[in-house]
Amino acid sequence: MMASMRTKRTSEFKAKVALAAIRGDQTVAELASLYKVHPNQITTWKRQAQDHLVAAFDNKKAKSLKADEKLKEALYSHSGAGVIAQSRLGFKILIVGCSSHWSPPS
Known about the structure:
Layout: H1 11-23, H2 28-35, H3 39-56, H4 59-77, E1 83-86, E2 92-95
Antiparallel strand pairs: 1-2
Helix pairs in contact: 1-3
């Protein structure tokens, strides 16, 4: 007997199922049967969607996400070189790579 491969769902599919669950027109069991997904997975996607909806309207989180993206870009731009970064919790993080052509960040 061969083991079945896990089904990979697209973000669009997850969003569609989560919105249907949030809408509440059908029960989670009905949605699970309709979309061929386990009810626990629908509940998880629904919770994730609700959590991220709050963040979409929160300016503080949006600014934090932009700052995280800038930090990520800065770290990746040094192609694995040693970089010291300040985390949101105030800890200094040393990221060490194996690049032999390292120059300090400007």
